[in-house]
Amino acid sequence: MMKKFSLNTSALLLVLLFSIQINAQVTERQKPEEWNRLVKGGRFLDRFMPISPLGKLTTETWGAEGVIPRYTDNGIEDPDWSYWGGNILKGDDGKFHLFVCRWPENSPKGHMEWPKSEVVHAVADNTMGPFKVQSVIGKGHNPEAYRMKDGRYIIYVIDGYYLAESIDGPWKAGKFEFNPRDREIIEGLSNLSFVQREDGSFVMVCRGGGIWLSKDGLSPWQQVTSKRVYPDVDGRFEDPVIWRDNVQYNLIVNDWLGRIAFYLRSKDGVHWKVDPGEAYIPGITVYTDGTNEDWFKYERIKIFQDEYRRAVQANFAVIDTIKWDDKTNDRHSSKNIGIPLNKGVLMTILDEEKIDDNTKTIRVKIEAEPSFNPLTDIDVNSLHFGAPEVVNFGGGCTVSGTEPDGNDLIVTFKGSNNGFRDDSFAAKLLGKDKNGKLLLGYARLPWVEYIEPILSARLPVLNANGNLEVEVENFGQIASKNASLKIELVNEQETIEIASAKIPGLNPFEKTKISMKCSKIPSEDAQLKVSITYNRKMMESLTGTLRID
């Protein structure tokens, strides 16, 4: 009897363990009702395009039923290695360089050997592959490579980086310095992603959604946000990727548990808007010949951009099963793949005055490209234009006329229903080409200042003289003018202003200490709110405990 009970209990535990593993990898997320009203092109997911066949379609490879047959030349794969993460840089040699991590497929822990992975440098003649390993760089996981303004290369890995003068090395290991500046580090400093700003400085987003800045991409990273910039929804967020195109900053973050990703946009890389709809989900690896590779998970997205910085390809780490079911020497594994993206058209708003509810017409120039003739390729009557918040749902301005401008096309839209508001920083175009395929584009708004000062404060320090000192730094790309600083005492009953001062103009990455007399000296455990106002707009507020010098 005891033996039978023990066997049944063991079986039950195995079932429960399997259920826990499944639940630890997948959950169903309830999607907002408004997502059902999005039109084609309203979500980032719509930008994924069918892949042209690569090499030979084969069944002679590893994988679950859903990924066989497949084109093994897509990205990088090898029966002896499991690959994960990685992004592509175009070298001065015209070749494409993939920095990706891997571990042996015969590792005792299977996929869970990933903490012992190594970073390798692989090369191909095109962005899709096949990539072939050229060299081993060193230990590390979740690499992301980028080039600094001075020409040097960095490969970030969890808890460190590799630095080289050339894309071919030699590589020297190092560690970044991080200064949270009295802000909570959100979910630790792993799975970092980086983008260069116009002046050569860098923005970084960490796994938890905190935004950090560095003057050169190597010097100490400093946190400027006090909470995550991700959507305010339930999600197990990781694998952010950030990039800057010719119009705006972009960010995608993955909810690994829900297997759904979100897309965000920003004019400065610090303040973000969440766009509706899925950024990507399983089921996006489709070929033009109808082949569909049904990968179980898509993670570690990275973006490859063209000469205009438009996103033209997404690369993913993919796995054919639950990670814990990828064991040593079995038929399961992981690899890196590429999927082309609809890059969108190049377009410019020709009107200089601010567009509002009273605007009668809006003129937009759509530029010709070697593979795109706007004079003949566009279904003009399908176009609608305006703020993304309305265009994504089928609204916006409609066409009233067109005219050629050399090889380019000028489209005049009726000004009504444009949707632009004070916080708008980009316009969106949606429609179809003459073949019914998605046509999209973004444009800057001529009246918007895209590069502005970014003033940020640390928490007040009470010095020996009973004064409050606050460190303020300009993380923007241009110098600031005078700004206002206010300190408030926060308690359950009320908020009381206890000090204020003027902040002098600061150059980019210049900082100063402001000393202020208090109308009321706070206690050691006091909660204080620091606010900065610039050009009559609230630039930042930070709340935390008083620091004693």
List keywords for this structure.
single chain, 549 residues, mainly beta, seven-stranded mixed beta barrel, five-stranded mixed β-sheet, disordered N terminus
Secondary-structure-derived class = mainly beta
Count of DSSP-assigned helices: 3
Main sheet summary = 7 strands, mixed, barrel
Task: Strand order, main sheet: write it out.
Answer: 25-26-29-28-27-30-31
- Report the principal-axis shape: globular
Please indicate the percent range of residues in DSSP E strands (runs of 2 or more): 35-45%
Number of strands: 40
Tell me the distance between the termini: 70 Å
Low-confidence stretches: 1-23
Task: Write down the overall mean pLDDT.
Answer: 93
Give the C-alpha Rg: 26 Å
Helix content: under 10%
Kindly report the oligomeric state of this protein: single chain
How are the secondary structure elements laid out?
Blueprint: H1 2-23, E1 57-58, E2 70-71, E3 81-90, E4 96-104, E5 118-124, E6 132-139, E7 144-147, E8 153-157, E9 160-164, E10 172-174, E11 178-179, E12 193-196, E13 202-205, E14 211-214, E15 221-223, E16 237-244, E17 249-255, E18 260-266, E19 273-275, E20 285-286, E21 292-293, E22 297-305, E23 311-319, E24 334-340, E25 345-349, E26 361-366, H2 374-377, E27 378-386, H3 388-391, E28 397-405, E29 408-414, E30 426-433, E31 438-444, E32 455-457, E33 461-462, E34 468-474, E35 483-490, E36 495-503, E37 511-516, E38 527-534, E39 537-545, E40 547-548
